[in-house]
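quick one
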Amino acid sequence: MNPTKNRITSTRLNKFISESGICSRRKAEEMILAKRVTVNNKIITQLFFKVNPAKDKVFLDGERIAPKRHLYFLLNKPMGVVTTTNDEKNRKTVIDLIKTNEKIFPIGRLDFNTTGVLLLTNDGEFSNLLTHPRNKVPREYEVRLDRHLTDEDIDKLQTGIFIEGKRGRFEKISFTNRNSKKFVNVVASEGRNHFVKNMFSALSYTVVSLNRVSFAGFKADVPLGSFRALSKFEISGVINKYGR
Ligand code: URA
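structure w/ uracil:
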């Protein structure tokens, strides 16, 4: 058996209950301690008890708790759309572009005018795998700058510079247009907000346009503004690669 997979398929009982949308994890713990929860017909009172959502039958007060169906989407985000689940200014959000009645949320964020690959899901654990800094998930961007990028600045951006009090660097930098050093491709392995813009702005460049070409190896393989579901193979690929 693959131990990584096993760890991700079994989940703590209180987490399983809260993820099915019934209540918070703390409330779930109270219900477990109050002997209201059974797993495969046995009352469970251990808070650290683990269940396999695909196999185990969990009941609360005699009623079956159905495991939540997880959803995973890839969106090719267009400009002029906010990466949030709810915008206080009533602007169009990335959620408005996905046809589903389930509550989903974006994995990380892209700025209002940034285009490209954005993943969305209702699976918090999957999202954590892709956003946790320790996993150094690669993000590749096409950047258009206001002026030519110098060799000296390429060195600085790859060695590391301080932005917002913390060192940041690009893993790779290359030019995408032979005739102009304003067009660059960068690979970053961190996802701080406005990371690319802040990196360039620290060296007095302005990012004129930004497109995320890929995220965790997922490419923008649908038209701008369109989305698709991830395949089972793609989902397990992420879990096997980044799961612990
Ligand atoms: N970095 C940015 O500055 N903006 C984005 O939208 C994504 C990465």
